[in-house]
Each structure stands twice: as C-alpha cells, then as structure tokens.
Design a protein that fits this description.
This protein is an all-alpha fold. Helices cover 83% and strands 0% of the residues. The chain has one domain (2-204). It has helices spanning 2-41, 47-90, 100-108, 118-141, 148-171, 175-204.
Length: 205
C-alpha cells in the first residue's frame, strides 16, 4: 500500500511539473505575442514590420521564460535537497528495512534519488512558449487584409480555450473556470494593446 502511494505521488509530481512548464509557457507565448502583434497591426499593415516585431518578441519571451524557470526550479531543487538532508539526519539511525525514499516521497513529495531538473524546466518552458507564439504569428501574417486582426483574435481565443481545457483536464480541476480564466486574460491583453496601438496610430496622423 505504501509503495503504491509512493508511486502515485511520484507520478503526480512528474505530471504537475510537466503541466506547469507546458501550460505556463504556451499560454504566455500565445498571449504575449498576440498582444504584441495585434498592437503593431493596429498601427500598420506592413507584414514585414509585424514579422520582425513578432520574432523579436518570441526570442525575448522564450529566453525570459527559460531564465525564469531555471531560477525558480533551482530554488525549488535547493529546498528539496534541504528537506532530504534534514530527513536523512533525523533517520540516520533507522533500522535497515526502513525505506527512506518511500518515507520522504510520502511525507514531502520529494524523490531523493531524482531532484527536479532546472534545465528540463527551462527547455520545456522555452519550447512551449515558442510553440504557443506561432499561433498568433501565423494568424496575423495570413493575407486577410482588414480581417487579419479579427482572425488573429478568434484564433488566439480558440487556442487559449484549448490550453485552458487541457490544463484543467490533466490537473483534475474545474474546466469551465480554467477556460474562462485564460480566455479573459488573453482577450483583455489583445484589447488593451490594440487600443494603445490604435491610439498611437491616430496621434501619429
């Protein structure tokens, strides 16, 4: 029973780490780049300018996400090691058949044989950011003329609805709340940047 519980905790930890990096990265990629390109598209229809701006945003965003995840997970890793060291000190005189790994995983959700990897988190975050950012980039660059912005807006909301549903499904949380939350955030970001871009466009005239 205890071994089964340990395996469940190990599986949950692995899934939660993967979810956090993938969902946060993809959502940030979708929302950040959508807000950026929609704001620029509100001022100009020059696709080359939108493309250059989008590429710069993707590179900056992916690097920022990777660095942030690396720092965050490195701190988490240090905390995990500290917990294991304390538990090892407390149980250094435990009898031979005492399963230290199972005890630490059950009590703290930490695997003393495999700490969380900051490099894996950094790569996963950067990769998911890049993949998510492709949706608004491709949408806004398609030759739809005046419909480019509405098309991008709808494409982004559909993508966010999917990531919200997926994260809720895998995480076992309320799907409707998750979808509404991510859609609201994405819509608000695009409306804000479009409004600012339109305002600067009018002032420029």
């Amino acid at each position: 029973m205890k071994e089964e519980k340990t395996q469940k905790i190990e599986s949950l930890n692995a899934r939660s780490n993967w979810l956090r990096a993938a969902v946060l990265g993809s959502n940030d990629g979708i929302v950040s780049i959508a807000g950026l390109v929609v704001g620029v598209a509100a001022v100009t229809e020059d696709k080359s300018l939108i493309l250059i701006t989008g590429i710069a945003g993707i590179l900056a965003g992916a690097i920022s996400m990777a660095a942030g995840e690396y720092i965050s997970v490195s701190t988490q890793r240090d905390m995990e090691k500290n917990v294991v060291d304390k538990e090892r000190e407390q149980h250094k005189n435990a009898h031979e058949d005492f399963n230290f790994r199972a005890h630490v995983m059950t009590e703290h959700g930490v695997d003393p044989d495999e700490y969380t990897s900051p490099w894996q988190a950094a790569v996963a975050s950067a990769a998911s950011f890049f993949i998510g950012s492709l949706i608004p980039m491709i949408a806004v660059l398609l030759p739809f003329g005046k419909l480019s912005i509405p098309f991008t807006f709808v494409s982004v909301l559909i993508a966010l609805a999917f990531t919200g549903w997926l994260s809720a499904y895998l995480g076992g949380t309320n799907r409707r709340k998750s979808i509404i939350r991510v859609i609201f955030g994405g819509a608000l970001a695009m409306i804000a940047t479009y409004g600012i871009g339109s305002l600067f466009g009018i002032v420029g005239l």
